[in-house]
Fold this sequence. Notes:
By secondary structure, this protein is of the alpha+beta class. The chain has helices spanning 63-73, 81-98, 105-119, 121-131, 137-155, and strands spanning 11-18, 24-31, 37-43, 50-52, 58-59, 102-104. It has two domains: 11-43; 50-155. The protein has a three-stranded antiparallel beta sheet with strand order 1-2-3, with no helix packed on it. It has a three-stranded mixed beta sheet with strand order 5-4-6. β2 and β3 (37-43) form a beta hairpin. The model has no long low-confidence stretch (mean pLDDT 86).
Amino acid sequence: MRCPICSSQDTQVTDTRLAESGLEILRRRKCLACGKRFKTLEIIQISLPVVVKRNGARSEYSSAKLKASMRLALRKRPVPADAVDSAVMQIEDKLATLGEKEIDSQLIGELVMKQLRRIDNVAYVRFASVYRSFEDVSDFQDLLNEVKSKKKINRI
């Protein structure tokens, strides 16, 4: 670590603490050359894969896009905002653990549907109806029957 005062690389860590979020590390350091003290912050950087869309185009993964699409499906539903944040974190954790450099957008869509199904059945149906590009009413009815049957199983 380079000293911000004198630019010396000869520094010493005097104290290390975990930040409140639990995802960052705060370090107090002392420059051995000039004696000044300063603090550093370590943040975990997760490398997420590039998204390959259905048409073959590639784009960087966007947490904001994922949140926006989930919020659209959850619009006017009684679901707390932190449920979306938690779901997005779980999806990102799954993507990071795959260790792939590229990932199909279809896998992301499936992960979103899994999370939406856990959060709210109506949002799940909304998202699935757009994501799966239903051709006719029977496709939609099949999805509704699937949701109803799983709901009955969960009640037992």
